[in-house]
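Quick one:
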Amino acid sequence: MPSPQTSSSAQRTHAKTPEEIVQLLDRHERWLRKVPGGIRADLTLQILSGANLSRINLRGAKLAGCDLSNARLVSADLSECDLFSANLSNADLTNANMKHADLRGINLRAANLTGARLDHADLRTGSLLGPAQDGAVSFVGSVTGKVDLQASGMKRADLTGARLTEAVLTGADLTDANLTDVKMMRCSLDGAKLMRAKLGGADLTNANMLQADCTDADLSGANVAGANLEGSDFSGAKIEGVDFSRATLSGAKISLSISTLAEDIQKIIRDHVAWADSHGRDGARADMFRRSFVRIDFTGVDLSGASLVECKFGSAVLRKACLTMANLSSADLIQCDLTEAVLNGVNLAKADLTMAEMAHAQLGPMEIRNRDGKPSGRFWPANLSSANLKRANLADADLRMANLSGADLSEANLTGANLDEANLSNAKLDGAKLDGARLPA
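Output:
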């Protein structure tokens, strides 16, 4: 934390009368217009709590340590102001202009900043020493000096290029806010609402964003190294160019594009898709072991025949993906989305599919063809032997002839599933939902 600053006028500041304040504001207006008699307003450490100052023009005024709590400052011009360690808690700053203002150490807790302009404002830490009280030095604002924006309303606010290092925005509403290129290192954004917010190029290094709502937000090119994003929702968010490898993502709703993988892995996948599309004439079959594809979005991708033994797919999206005859033995597919995926003849022996979403998935047999391409009349069943399918959703899934011997289907949802001719020897079905399921004779 930076060293506390002492106001040069702290010891001699006295409470101004309403008449003195009116005169001061009049002289400030003259100063702005550069006419005789104008003087820059200095309201350092003054108490203006609850004042109605809507639409006032205080551009460039000195308001360090000023108490403007509960004040009404709708559409006020506070651009380039010195508001170092000022108190604007619960203030109404709707559509206010605070562009390029010095807001270090400011208290904006529960303030209404809807539509406000704070672009390129300085909201870093800062503490102001005020007049001594009972022989002891007193702090104006927070002793920690961190900008307090807890529970503030900042819908549609413009914070482009603002510096918010270590600011506290717990529970703040930043819906539709512009946070492009903002500096938010070590910020606290737990529970913040960032729906549709623009965070392109934002620096969120080591920020705490637990349970934040970032649905449909634009984080293109943002830096989230060391950030704690546990439980946050990034559904529909733009995340091109974002490296999540050093962020904590436990419980977060997020799926990463294939383009976020290492280039050599991308090439293997491209070559495999070409191999599958050309029936082996072009490209090459993917053969990968213990690779990580955590949270990668493979929606609709053809990975049929790929060897992916012991690969990690935790929380990956594989909706409508084709994994026919693929080898996923001992793979980690915990909480993966395999809705409507085609997995006929797949090898999932000893795979972990705990809480996987597999509704309407096809896990039936693959018909074996002769060398001339004609049906042989023989079938290769899907192998899920000893697989962990606890609490998996297999509603309406096709599991005909599947090998489920030793599989753990405890509390799984098999409602409407087709298990005709499936091998369920030694399978655990404790608490499984079997309403409407077709079981082997």
